[in-house]
Lysylphosphatidylglycerol synthetase
Amino acid sequence: MKKIIRLIVGVILAGVFLWLIFRHLSLDEIKEAFSEANLSWIGLAVIVFFIGYACRIERWRLMLIQNNPALQWRQCAGPLMASVAANNVLPFRAGDVLRAFGFNRRLGINAATSFTTLFVERLLDLLMVVSFLGLALAYFGMESSAFIGVGAGFLLAAGAAILFLLLFPAFFKPFAYWLGRTISSFLPGLGKKMNDEFHKVFTALEHTSSGHTMPRLVLWSVLAWLAEGFVFWLTAMSLPSVANHLAAWLALPVGTLATVIPGTPGYVGTFDYFTAKAMTSLGNPAAASTAYAFLLHAVLWLPPTIAGGVYLLVNPIKKQEKTKALSP
């Protein structure tokens, strides 16, 4: 029931944000901006998109080889793209569930390792998004963000804190458990829940912070997000009506952060509204910014959905794989 309510809320919010986008614009203005799109720039953006995902696949492989050292990049590529495709078309983050439990047998890993990688990926991506937003605000002189109410300094400090946690989780572990015990003394239920979550967090981080693994994961994350930033920028370059192409580097973290808002599969409405808002905040016309947001959304949505869908059609998950994935 909670999931159904969340989906209904997401659909309503998507409708609200789409209404906010179109309430002062005509479809003719957006069509005109679309009609000027340069397909060469868009094609280049798609190529760079796949380069970025190649980096994400290598990052995932580095986490998985601690469980299966023989695992190769090509074995990880299909399952990761399939999970992205599933998230793009199915509700309730079905792609994450698919990646955590659906491919373990063919990858030669256990469910615990697969689930752990999802958590570490979220932290790495949060580090990148927060850092990119802080750098963008600093570069454009937007010390007080119109989107989340904090400035560049705070965001960069938060990014540094996340990076320190990723590299040195043992430093935070005693304090975290002390906090859990302290809260348990007057709120036993909350304290136990916090300690359980802390255990999951530090188990995951200790799994990936040993040796040189985490610095390599951070490096591949930087490369992946730089590639995604260039996808945003190249898409902006494809539209002559977009005056300030560099605004795409602000749209990258703002649009990405908008995806945490409950919404539909593929983040219809939420991603588009905040991406367009980031573009207009740096002087781009509203119609051009809206056309950019929708065109960018297609560039980010269509390639992984097709690639992941084809992989699942050619390599469907068999019944025995499902059985093993659901077994303890």
About this structure: Residues 9-113+212-318 form one domain. DSSP finds 15 helices and no strands in the chain. The first helix runs from residue 2 to 22.
